[in-house]
Amino acid sequence: MKRYIEFSFYLPFFDLIDDTDGVFSLEDLMRQLNIRFNIMELYNQYLSYGEGVSRVGKGDVFVFFTKYDKNIFILIDLFNDFTDQHNMVKLGVRCEINHDKRIRDIFNNIHLRAEIKSKINESDDDLLKLDINSEDYPKEIPYGDHIYIKNIYYNTI
């Protein structure tokens, strides 16, 4: 039997970090997983890539692990795709299956509040874990005549 489950979806960055109606689900998610990072630093990092056309092809992946198990983490992929018009980022969570009820509720709440979003992907196939392999980074992303670079950072904010 699998021990971990993963959830992910895309949503606008500002919907992820926005505190609406006193409900700050990202902080609740961090608390439930015993993961800490500075949301304002994440916000500043996101803004450092620029705005509008100058932001296209920029952005990195940030992974935040729990202290007790490197298989439990929150992933936030800030890369701005070339066709993105809504500041979409990827939010991913990996947690133990026996603790997924509360995580699933929080994740669904974040999904529900997002104005624009993809469907939630749920898997026990270690897709997110495979995606954060440091040997695969930096990733080169060709587009037109340019090659863009996406880096990955672990517990850096």
Provide a descriptive summary of the structure in words.
The chain has 157 residues and is of the alpha+beta class. The chain has a single domain (4-154), classed as S-adenosylmethionine decarboxylase, CATH 3.60.90. The chain is 27% helix and 28% strand. It contains five helices and eight strands, in the order βαααβββαβαβββ. The chain has helices at residues 13-17, 25-33, 39-48, 100-113, 127-131, and strands at residues 4-12, 61-65, 73-77, 88-96, 121-123, 139-143, 146-150, 152-154. It has a six-stranded mixed sheet. It has a two-stranded antiparallel sheet with strand order 6-7. Helix 2 packs antiparallel against helix 4 (100-113). The radius of gyration is 15 Å and the shape is globular. The mean pLDDT is 90.
Structure summary:
By secondary structure, this protein is of the alpha+beta class. It is built from 5 helices and 8 strands. The strands form 2 sheets. A 6-stranded mixed beta sheet has the order 5-1-4-3-2-8. A two-stranded antiparallel ribbon has the order 6-7.
Q: For this structure, what is the CATH class? A: Alpha Beta
Level-2 CATH architecture: 4-Layer Sandwich
Low-confidence stretches: none
Q: What is the number of E strands?
A: 8
Number of helices: 5
- Kindly report the oligomeric state of this protein: single chain
CATH topology assignment? S-adenosylmethionine decarboxylase
Q: What percent of the residues sit in helical stretches (DSSP H or I)? A: 25-40%
The amount of beta strand, in percent, is 25-35%
Q: What is the radius of gyration computed over CA atoms, rounded to a whole number of angstroms?
A: 15 Å
User: What distance lies between the first and last C-alpha atoms, to the nearest angstrom?
Assistant: 34 Å
Q: Which structural class should the secondary elements be placed in?
A: alpha+beta
Counting structural domains, the number is 1
Q: How do the strands of the widest beta sheet line up side by side? A: 5-1-4-3-2-8
The H/E string reads EHHHEEEHEHEEE
